[in-house]
Amino acid sequence: MRANKSNNIKKYAILGVLILLAGFFSIVTDSFLTASNLMNISRQVSMLGISAVGMTCVILTSGIDLSVGSVMAIVNIIGAKLMTEAGLPIFPAAVITLIVAAIVGLINGVMISYVGVPAFIVTLATMISLRGLAYVLCAGMPIWGLPDAFRTLGQGYLGPIPIPVIIMLIVFAIGWVFLNRTKTGRYIYGLGGNKEAVRLAGIRTARVGTIAYIISGFLTGLAGLIMLSRINTGQPKIGTSFEMDVITAVVLGGVSMRGGSGSILGVLVGVFITGILSNGMILLNISEYYQQIAKGLVLLFAVTLDTVANLRKN
Amino acid sequence: MKKKALMNIVAVVAILMCALPVFSAGQQEAAGDEIQVTFMVHDLGNPFWATQAKGATDKAKELGVKLTVIDLQVDAAKEISTWENLITAKVDGIMISCVDEEASKAYCQKAQAAGIKVMATVHPLAGADGSLANDEYNYGFLAGEVAGTFIKEKLGGKAKFALLANDATAFVIPRIDGVRDGILSQAPNAVLVARQDAFQTDTGLAVTESLLQAHPDLAVIGCLNDDGALGAYEAMRAAGKDPEKVCITGTDGITQALELIKAGSMLRASVSMAPYESGKAEMDILYKLIKGLPVEPHQKIPNEAITTANVDKYL
Question: Does residue A273 lie within any of the structural domains?
C-alpha cells in the first residue's frame, strides 16, 4: 500500500512538469495548443514511446538496453532490403524484420541472464556491432523505392488519429496489463526489487530477465518499422543516440534506474514531456544551442522534483 | 553516474577501434615500402562521404597505395585520438575531412613534423600540405538561387521560407548563410521564419512537421544537405501540400534526391560536389605530394546547381 501511494505522488509530480511545460508553450505560441499540433507531437513521440515500453521492462529488472538505437538501424536496413531488393510483400517483410529484432533481444537476454555478463556491457557490445552490421548490409548507402502502401504505417490516419499513435497507445495498454496483471510482469518488478527473494520463491529469474530484453528488442523493431515508413528510406545511421532519448524518457517517467519501481503511465508522461519540449522549442524557433541546455535542465528539474516528492513521502 | 560510465566506456572502445587499423597498417609498413595513407572521413553514414571514400579507395588501388578508411562519426574526440594514433604509427599521408578544424590544426603540424603529408579533403584545415576545398558559401548560394528564382517566378516574389541547418558545426554555417542569401538575392521580399538544426532525414522530417504547425503557409525550405531535404520532402508530402507551390532544396547531389529532382517533385534542386571525382583527385594530389611530384597542392571543387534541366548528367 505504501509503495503504491508513493508511486502515485511520483506520477503527479511528473504530471505537474508536463502540465507546466504545455501551459508555458500554449501561452507563448499560437500554434502549440491546436488539435493538429497535438496530433503532430503524438506522432513524433510514437516511436520513442513504443520503444520506451520495452526499455521500462528492462530497467525494472535493474537492467539497461543500450542497443535500441542500433536495433532501429538494422530494422531500417533489413526491412528496406526485404521490401525492395528481395521484393517481399509488406506483411512478411515486416514480420521477418520484427523476428530479427526479437532475436537481438534474445541474444542480449541470454548473455545477460544466463551467462551473467553485465547488461551494460552486453548491450553496449550489440549496440556497436549492430551499427556496424547496418553499414555493412547496405554498404553505407541509403535504400529507397519502398512500396507506396507501406507509407500508411507511419504516415496514415485512422479517422483523425495518426496510425503510429494508435499503435503506441495499444502498446502502452498491453504494457500496463502485462506489468500489472500478469505473473511474468510482476516477476519483472520483483527481479529489480529483490532478485534473490524472487529466485528463492522458485521463479526462473533468468527466463524472466530474458523476456524483458526480447520485449525491448521486439518493440524497438516495431518502432523501427514506423520510422522506416515515416522517412520512406532505409538509412544505416538512423536511431543514433536513440537509446539515450529512450532512457531519458523512461527516467523522466519516474522509473528507478535501480529497478523494481516505476509505472508505465509515468513513462507515457515522460515520453510526452520529451516530445512537447522539442516541438515547443521549434515552434518558438529557439536556436539549437539553447535547446540542448533546456533539455538537460528539464531532465534535472523533473527528476529532482520526483526525488523530493519521494523523500517527503518517506 | 551511469551516463558518465557509459561515456568512459564509449571513449575507450572508440580509441581501441581507431587504434586497430592503425596498428595493422604500421605492421604492414614494416613488411614492405608500400605507401600507407589513412583517410579520416567525416561521416561514413552520409552517402556523400561514403562515395568520396570510394573514389579515394579506387584511386589508391590504381596508384598502388595502401589506403585505410576511418569513420570519424562527426566526433571531435575520435578525430583527436585518431590523429595521435596515426602520428605514432608514422603513416606516409593523412587525408582528413575535419570535424573540428581548430582541434586538428595542432595535430596537423605535429604530423608534418613527423614527415607525414596532410591533405584537407573538402573541409578546410589551415596549414595542410594540400587541399581540395569547397567554397561553402557559394555551395549554398547556388541552391538558394534556385529557390529564390522559384519564389520570384511561381509565388509572385513573396513567400515564407525556413532553413534546415547544422549550426552546431562551425564550418557549414556559411553554407546555410549562402542558401539564405541566395534566396534573398532573387526574392528580396521573402521572409525567413525559422532556422533550425536538421541535417538527417528523420530530424528533417520531425522539424518540418513542427514548422508546418507554426507556419502552415511555409512554402520554401532551404536545407543544408539532401539528407535533411528528403525529410522535409516527406513532411511536405504527408501534409498534402500543393507540389506546384513548394520548393525544397538540398546540397550534395545524392542519388535519391536526384531521382526526385528528375521526377519534377517539390525537391527542386541540389548542388554537386562530385564526391567520387573529388575522392580520386584528393588521393592523386596527396600521392604526388608524398612522391615529391609536381602538383598544384590547393584546388577548388567546381560546384554546379542540379535542377531538372541538367539532372541527367549526374544520374
Answer: yes
Question: Pick from B213, B264, B244: which is nearest to A283 by CA?
Answer: B213
Q: How far apart are CA B261 and CA B281, in angstroms?
A: 27
Classify residue B309: in a domain, yes or no. Answer: no
Q: How far apart are CA B21 and CA B267, in angstroms?
A: 40
CB-based contact, A91 to chain B, within 8 Å = no
In a domain, A8, yes or no: no
- pLDDT tens-digit series, residues B114-161: 999 999 998 889 999 999 998 999 999 999 999 999 999 999 999 999
CATH number at residue B101: 3.40.50.2300
Strand partners, B33: none
Q: Chain A within 8 Å of B253 (Cβ-Cβ)?
A: no
Q: Is B108 within the bounds of a domain?
A: yes
Query: Residue B208: closest CA among chain A residues belongs to which residue?
Result: A282
Task: Indicate whether B232 and B203 sit together in one domain.
Answer: yes
Domain total of chain B: 2
Spatial separation of the C-alpha atoms in residues B35 and B291, rounded to whole Å:
9
> Taking CB atoms and an 8 Å limit, are A237 and B45 in contact across chains?
yes
Strands, E assignment, chain B: 36-41, 66-71, 93-96, 117-122, 130-133, 160-165, 191-197, 218-223, 247-249, 267-272, 298-300, 304-306
The neighbouring-strand residues paired with B305 are B271
**Domain assignment present for B102:** yes
The residue of chain B nearest to residue A234, with distances taken between CA atoms, is B201
Identify which of B3, B201, B210 has the shortest CB distance to residue A40: B210
Substitution target in A42, A76, A237 with the highest count of B β-carbons within 10 Å is A237
Residue B254 has pLDDT above 70, yes or no: yes
Which positions in chain B touch A59 (Cβ < 8 Å)? none
The answer to whether residue B151 is domain-embedded is yes
Residues of B in contact with A288 (CB under 8 A): 167-168, 196-197
Q: Are residues B289 and B243 in the same domain?
A: no
DSSP helix/strand/coil, B286 = helix
Please give the tally of structural domains in chain A: 1
Domain check: are B125 and B241 in the same one? no
B47 touches A: beta carbon within 8 Å: yes
Residues B267, B140 share a domain: yes
* Interface ipTM above 0.85: no
> What domain range includes position A298?
32-306
Are B63 and B110 part of one and the same domain? yes
Are B198 and B296 in a shared domain? no
Closest residue of A to B210, CA-based?
A: A279
Which domain does B10 fall in, by range?
2-132+275-301
Choice between B45 and A153, residue whose per-residue pLDDT is larger: A153
Q: What is the pLDDT of residues A165-197, one digit of tens each?
A: 999 999 999 999 999 999 999 999 999 888 888
* Closest by Cβ to B230, choosing from A227, A233, A240: A233
Q: Pick left, alpha or beta for residue A243 (phi over 0 → left; psi -120 to 50 → alpha; otherwise beta).
A: alpha
| Co-location of B99 and B169 in the same domain | no
Mean pLDDT rounded to a whole number for chain B: 89
